[in-house]
Amino acid sequence: MNKKPTVEELEHKIEKLEESEKKYRQLFETAMVGIYRTRINDGKILAANQTLAELMGYDSVDQFVKEYVTSKHYTDPKRREELLYQIRSQGRVDGFEIEMARTDGSLVTIEISAAAYPELGYLEGVVIDITKRKQAEDALRESERKYFILVQESPDAIISLDKKGHLLSFNPAAERKSGFLAKEVMGKHFAKIGVLAKQSIPKALKEFALVITGIERPPFELTIMRKDKSYLFMEANPRLIKHKGEKAWIQVTLRDITDRKLVEAEKKRLETQLQQSQKMESIGTLAGGIAHDFNNILYSIIGYAELALDDAETGTPLYENLQELLIASHRAGDLVKQILTFSRQVDQTLKPLKIQMVVREALKLIRSSLPSTIEINQNISNTCGLVMADATQIHQVAMNLLTNAFHAMEDQGGKLDVTLKEIDLYMDDLKDPAMLPGSYVCLTVADTGAGIDKSIIDRIFEPYFSTKEKNKGTGLGLSMVHGIVKSYGGNLRVYSEPGKGSAFHVYLPVIQTQAETKETQIVSPVEGGKERILLVDDEEQIVRMSQQMLERLGYQVTARTSSIETLEAFRAAPDKFDLVITDTTMPNMTGIDLARKLMEIRSDIPIIICTGFSEKISRLKANSMGIRGYVMKPVVKSELAKKIREVLDQN
Q: Are residues 449 and 368 part of one domain?
């Protein structure tokens, strides 16, 4: 039989219940989340805490309970029906998100967890304010959306890689730049998809290995090989991306810097051209500096060789050797003229010219340089007409074309074909509008070398453009050839097939004139005289040679090696001399200053200026000063004798 509780026991239980109720009430009222109880049948608020009341915009729980109207706070009736349906069908709901309106009209997003007690006629629930969390989530989604658009619309290629280097993403710009579709490369290792040029793979792998460890790396350059095998220069900027709870990955932004690299290359090319121009300017200055001394040396060599030739018996080996010595000396003199012409120190002299001998001379000169693996075939017509040209420049044209052909076949050998003939070109044959129909001398230099690639054939006549190895060319040869030929009213054409060889065709217009060739000229004997000549040159060797040469011509020669002594001798007896021959560059007093002082003493004294080279005096300037004659060293005996007679006879 159950024992009935005593009064004390009942009182104790009541106290316990009251204490529990108090704790529950305190928890209910002070909870940081909203707590409520509503009737199931009509949704009337039976109880709520202060947190929920404030969340919905009410000052107190009493106000909330009295004034709360369901339709006023639910912004989406359908969403409320979904909430009720879940509670009725399942008896509870957990984490149900719904948007509510506060009394001031502002919106809050809440998360409801509730349970129904049908037997009691109500349901109880907990409400959590997740407005800030939802705003953060929305902001994150918006940021992700913008980032996605940014990546998709970016002009830069943007790719992402996992920690092993496999592609995770490949944006449209990456597709356009590479020529590959994303589906062709996704999941593959970046170094094995064929996008990176071979020379860039080691660099890319090294940078990837550093970035994946968390080391920040500066942008670096890569060369990309597109699907069509063309190349682009790219600047890669890799970043390690680490989000909490996610695997780390690498994002690489690739910016196309091809245009910039091309501009840099062009700038470097122009700088190189400037350096080359400065070098050529220095060469020009140097050429002027050495020309005088070199021509003095040649003058002595030629002069003494001519004196020796006069004494040698015709037909003897000595006579033949002296002739060869003179030929070589004249070639050296032409070389100095060529250097001076190239450096614009002297003007070119054009005259009617048969270029057969010049081409043969160039062939003779190049032949000794060719290996036995290169065979020369020449077909030079002797019936070609005259062209208005400078022999030294034609020699330069031939030597440049022959040298280029030699270099094209230097390694593997081949055939060098040189053809010279006269042809007629009609209007339909002319590709250069500056050319006119008519007869042309055509020089063709053809080789069986490697040929010229089509991508560069239009640039071969540009100054400083060269595909040769360092120290094998300056890139000026064909440019000079082109310039010379164009200045003659001619044209230069090139035909080339890679792997088969090249052919250069030089067209020079034939002039309609009768020229006195060496074969038809009547060679007049060297004419001398008995006049008295005052000769001065600071080079003793030249003075001795010139004095001997002039005395053999019958002249009476007073020789000096000092311009000061010459002036004193002339001042002492100005009427004793019929002619003065003076060098230009001398110590203490130049030939020009000497000439002025001599003419101050005797205004009608004939003077011949003889110069190796000087920028300070020219034929025109000499004439304007009253100087009767002007000759350039090295001068041969016949030319000097002719000039002396010309000046004396005029006087």
A: yes
